[in-house]
Structures are given as C-alpha cells and as structure tokens.
Amino acid sequence: MEDIMQPDQKPLSPGDEGPPDAPGVGEDICAACQGTGMVEGERCDVCGGTGKVLQGIGGG
Length: 60
Ligand SMILES: [Zn+2]
Known about the structure:
Layout: E1 25-29, E2 38-39, E3 42-43, E4 52-56
Antiparallel strand pairs: 1-4, 2-3
The chain binds zinc ion.
Residues 30, 32-33, 37, 44, 46-47, 51 line the site of zinc ion.
C-alpha cells in the first residue's frame, strides 16, 4: 500500500537518487557538504541541507 500524499513524506533532495523506500537505495552522507548540510555558509543544494543523500547501493 502506498499513499503518495503522506504528510510526513519529505520531498526528495536534488542529490537523492531515489525514494527512501525503494529497493537498492540507501541513505549516505552527502559528499558535497560532508554531512553538515551547509556549503560555504549556504544550504547544500545536493542534499537540501539534510546532510544526507539517498544513493543506489546495488553497484550499478
Ligand atoms: Zn549536502
């Protein structure tokens, strides 16, 4: 069962490679901001300021 309009669902960050519940996708530290969520005093564009990104972990 999937509810697209979940109020708790955060929008995907630009650096995310897929939805968090997708198979083969895992959460990882954002390489652009090293997990700080900030780059040179600005919010990181890659992770959207979360410091974390979702990356495919299936090796391909
Ligand atoms: Zn980042």
